[in-house]
Write a structure and sequence with these properties.
A 5-stranded parallel β-sheet has the order 2-3-4-1-5. It folds into 2 domains: 3-57, no CATH class; 79-246, P-loop containing nucleotide triphosphate hydrolases (Rossmann fold, 3-Layer(aba) Sandwich), CATH 3.40.50. It is of the alpha/beta class. Helices cover 55% and strands 11% of the residues. The model has no long low-confidence stretch (mean pLDDT 92). The structure holds adenosine-5'-diphosphate and magnesium ion (MG). The site of magnesium ion (MG) has 5 residues, from helix 7 and strand 3.
Amino acid sequence: MSELVHQRVLEHCKRLRLGAVAARLDNLLDEATRGQMTYLDLLDLAFRTEAESKLDRRVRMGIQIAHFPVIKTLDGFDYSAQPSIDQGLMRELSTGRFVANGHNVLLFGPPGVGKTHLAIALGRAVIQAGYTVLFVTATELLAALDRAQSEGRLPDKLAHYAKPKLLIIDELGYLPFDKKASHLLFQLVVRRYERTSTMITTNQPVTQWGTVFGDEMMAAAMLDRLLHHSYAVTIQGESYRMREKRKSGLWKPPEPTTPK
Ligand code: ADP
Ligand code: MG
């Protein structure tokens, strides 16, 4: 009889998509007996097992879909190396609330100060908070839009990049854009404006964006939309890699030259 019930429970688990409970059914029952659990405790444990497994799966899939180039976490970020960063703001951003509100994040700073690290780490936190994320470098993004346009598939490609709740565009401004590329990016920014969040890392202060985009007017219009409802994080200081090298004695900063 109990074998029949056991079988039925497994079948119901399958139909209700409670895969984790099904996989751990015997363990859960053993644990309940050993721990002299109440019925409520057992239900609590079974539902928690399922909920945690579903969350874990969703986060793993979300991270795969996001296409992060490497694994970086907020725990792995050494704030003491970058005292210009407001840790409270990072904690706030990691809750994902800015995505719920359709706000943007701009990370400014010279090379090596941890902009990409923070963008990936925040992206992971946003996935954990339940949102879809896509990571792309500015160069990749522009190449993809440009290719789509020449193949007559631009609307599809724009829709693809407009969809994620958070789009991370990494390394904007390392290479200047031509007017056509700038216009494609502008179309995307307009599509996402006030509906979805965009996070941008850049080594260029906003005063240089006119030069980066080869068009002052378009740069101003783009910045207007990006900066409206946004958090701007400016990271100052030395490249983290250089700092590590200097600390280990592998690299010495050049001696200041005395003017003759
Ligand atoms: P950026 O995007 O600003 O050029 P990255 O995020 O690529 O810089 O950082 C360069 C390398 O240094 C990466 O491996 C990154 O993980 C590491 N790094 C930078 N800043 C920190 C930090 N404060 N704590 C830990 N690692 C850091
Ligand atoms: Mg970077």
